[in-house]
Amino acid sequence: MPRSGELVQWNNKGGYGFVRDQANNDYYVHVSKLADRQLRPRIGDLLTFEIASGRNGRPAAINVAVASAAPLRERSMSDVKRISTSVSRYKIGLRTTAATMMTLLILLAIADDRVPVWLGGTYALMGAASALLYRFDKLYALSGRWRVSETNLHVVDLCFGIIGGLAAQEIYRHKTVKPRFVATTWAIAIVHVLGLAMLALGWISIALP
Length: 209
Hints:
This protein is an alpha+beta fold. The chain has 2 domains: 3-68, CATH 2.40.50.140; 77-201, no CATH class. It contains 5 helices and 5 strands. A 5-stranded antiparallel β-sheet has the order 3-2-1-4-5, with no helix packed on it. Strand 2 (16-21) and strand 3 form a beta hairpin. Helix 2 (94-111) packs parallel to helix 5 and helix 4 crosses helix 5 (179-201). It is elongated, with a radius of gyration of 20 Å.
């Protein structure tokens, strides 16, 4: 059954992106599935498409056609915020839950004098850095410019930036579809949750000054 949606991400060099339907579901789009391969779509185009199973077993768009072209203009930071408003501000996802859990574990461990205050500061500083990287990567994806590498995003998340990284993924609806990236993100999150839980419960300790 044909559907319609907005192209919210497009890598013109790689020939792939994501289209978002009216139910806020994102579907992978590849240039090989375009009805007219000579006409590359642009961010903001209204597309018509059908759904089929992709290579990873996840739903993907096929028989894609541009129903209405978006006005040609430069994307800005306001576009990042506008896209994220399609998600209810009251909806709490798994990423927000995990980020909140880690924050509470850090606060509990500090309150019980099980970890130094600088550990909480490190999580806050690196979390802010990670959130900024995701924000800029989302903007670059919208405008088709140079992207922040996935390796760099994972490294910053691993180096105590995971709380900000998860929050940014939730807010900007960014990097939440690609299976390998999502799996790596959750592996990093689990490592930090377990480590913080053991610190908060006193199973392991950090020498205090």
